[in-house]
Amino acid sequence: MSNPKILTVQTGVPTPCYTQEAVTDMYLKLLNTNSKHRERAIRSVMHQSGVSFRHLAVEMQFFGSLRTTQQRNERYMAEALPLGERVIQNGLKKAGVTAQEIDSFVIVSCTGFNTPGLDLLLAQRIGMSAHLNRTCVLGMGCYGAFPGLKRAWDSVAAKPNQLTLLLCLEICTAHLQVDDSTETVVSTSLFSDGAGMALVGEAQSDASGPTLIDTETFCDYQTLGHMTFTVTDQGFRMYLSSYVADVLAANIRKFVERLLLRNNLEIPDIKFWAIHPGSKRIVEYIQQQLDLTDNQVSYSLQTLRDYGNMSSATVLFVLDRIMQMGSPQRGDYAVMMAFGPGLTMESILLKW
């Protein structure tokens, strides 16, 4: 039996779009700092993030007063449902597939939670089958698309005639923290909102998408505290250690080579690299360690520039950009990679 294929990728963002300069001004207004030195430092971090534009579902004025976790989660649900519905509907239309034809539905998110969740609420709104198999992958952070894709892979492999829909959706701005700690400033400089979907089905399909070949996972149990997302009474608090890029740099080459050697490949054999742009620095460190060209990391850096870090959805934006702008040809290989709490590294080998 052949491996499943990604038949369609579709992405979407909230309508409101802000420049990084506008976000910086609004954030500083919320902080109301009297320190010119601190203001200059914050502007420097925001400017050097590699982000130029971001789509934000939650306006900064929302945080003009103290917001509880309940209020933030309610806003997450209010924004997530229409965004998820729009992305799915557009993706199904592009694939020429009806909602009733979807057999399995996988939701990935770490920025909100509800019961009944997005899986049931979106299935109802879109008109999916009452016999739909559903899976929710919650709380896994920026690499969440990978367990989601693996679940889709398993579903199609078990029943080859099935279609599995994966939706990664994050409303990161619901958890904006209004303080000037270094960790908060770094998070504020990067995170934004968006959703990406992938339709996974049989590789025999005529669709032009890539085939899922193999996967690799590595978690460094000595670095669990370097990237965290903690529930507080005022939303989820993100912590991103300055050592994350160094930890990734120390492990990334061996991690990638394990995946490739198993498939009789080497790094130069891979034409496309869909690297999750956790930050500009992370992408640049990986580029150095893997000896990648500027063009090979351009899809990740352009995604970061135009959209920011949308957590689990971001890597699907990078893959979508590769499929639209890279013009992959039959026989081309790609590696998708993302990193998140753990410190966990995930990858998938693709082939067109």
What can you tell me about this protein's structure?
The strands form four sheets. A five-stranded mixed sheet has the order 1-7-6-4-5, with helices on both faces. Helix 1 (20-31) runs antiparallel to helix 2 (36-47) and helix 2 (36-47) crosses helix 6. With 352 residues, the protein is an alpha/beta fold. The mean pLDDT is 94. The protein is 39% helix and 24% strand. A hairpin with a 2-residue loop joins strand 9 and strand 10 (235-240). The chain has helices spanning 20-31, 36-47, 69-95, 118-126, 145-158, 182-190, 244-261, 280-290, 294-307, 314-325; strands spanning 5-12, 17-19, 53-55, 104-109, 133-138, 164-171, 193-201, 211-219, 227-232, 235-240, 272-275, 333-340, 344-351. It is built from ten helices and 13 strands.
The count of DSSP E runs of length 2 or more, i.e. the number of strands, is: 13
The dominant shape is globular
Largest sheet geometry: 5 strands, mixed
Beta content comes to 15-25%
Question: H/E element string?
Answer: EEHHEHEHEHEHEEEEHEHHHEE
Rg calculated over all Cα atoms: 20 Å
Brief rundown of the structure:
The chain has 352 residues and is an alpha/beta fold.
